Amino acid sequence: MFEQVAEPIATPATRGAWLRDWRVLAIDGFDVDVADTPGNVEEFGRTKAGNGESAFPKARVLALTECGTHAFLAAQVGPWSDGEQTLSMPLYSRLNRGELLTADRNFYSFAAWDRATATGADCLWRLRSGIPLPVVEVLADGTYLSMLTTKNIRATRRQKILAAARAGTLADCPQAVDDRGLPVAHIVRVIEYDIPDREGNGTGELIVLVTSILDPQAARADELAEAYHLRWEQETAHDQLKTHLRGPGRILRSRLPDLVHQEIWAWLLVHYATSVLITRAAEAADIDPDRISFTRTLRIIRRTAIATADISPSGLD
């Protein structure tokens, strides 16, 4: 049911949901405590910390989220032992042209980037340190073009591909594809900036972003930096789901793995419906959906549901 219902809900009138003509999305994960039963332990597993284990089994949920509306558009549910990169791979095929996917530095791999951009969507991802970014061309706005490559190619081949990229002949370079005709390199645009430290010791944090939007005229560096930080809206969606909709500290009640999966999808459905209601109300008032309280909306929904349940079916004849 979630797969049939969930779709992007922001319209051109939705504030805070767009970077120019791109719909801004984010990908991230969260964990869910489930009932402590043998079946759930076997299905989902426990986290390990120090010499002990978590009190409850934990399911891991990876989701694509529409940043401006906090709506979950697609998700993967798996055991705690499945890493975020593993669960995220099937979600990239759900992307569409005209969307801009943001992701933090834990998600990058060449395979993930290749799969996401193959859909026609654009990406804006932060890279962790240690990933080489050779300069292909310095652009007028201070950003520069670089090249991402797979790990399983030799240094001499990588240098040939880089030389072709700098010469503008990458499309004609036979070393730039593998035996199946698939690319082993992608040109990206790099945006670097620092965030002033909060403690005042003068150290700041360097942020390195790569994007498939290569033309500075299509999106300025400051616009992309601002769009990347919209990914934190997904953390708000997680808080709405886990703290306000489920309730703080509560454990999912299902004692069988199949019912845990069912409960998680129902949970996501209710959050999606609430996000739709908030977004439509925000559009009617011409305000950002962030300005409408999720908690108050949830109270209104619950009161309405209870009031409707009080009507006797016999009175509907």
Strand content: 15-25%
Largest sheet: 10 strands, mixed
Q: Quick one: overall form?
A: globular
User: Which segments are poorly predicted (pLDDT under 50) over 5 or more consecutive residues?
Assistant: none
The termini sit apart by: 31 Å
- What's the assembly state of these chains? single chain
Number of beta strands:
12
Give average pLDDT, whole number: 91
The string of secondary-structure elements, in order, is HEEHEEEEHEHEEEHEEHHHH
Number of helices: 9
> Structural class, from helix and strand content?
alpha+beta
Supply the number of structural domains: 2
Helical fraction = 25-40%
CA-based gyration radius: 23 Å
Descriptive report:
It is a single chain. By secondary structure, the protein is of the alpha+beta class. The chain folds into two domains: 1-103 and 231-306, no CATH class; 105-222, no CATH class. The chain has helices spanning 2-5, 38-44, 84-88, 110-117, 155-167, 221-228, 233-245, 257-285, 294-309, and strands at 18-19, 22-33, 48-49, 52-53, 58-66, 71-79, 99-103, 122-126, 137-138, 144-149, 185-195, 205-211. β5 and β6 (71-79) form a beta hairpin. The longest helix is centred in the last third of the chain and has 29 residues, at 257-285.
Structure, briefly:
By secondary structure, this protein is α+β, with helices and mostly antiparallel strands.
Identify the notable features of this structure and list them briefly.
two-stranded antiparallel sheet; globular; 317 residues; 9 helices; ten-stranded mixed beta sheet; alpha+beta; 2 domains
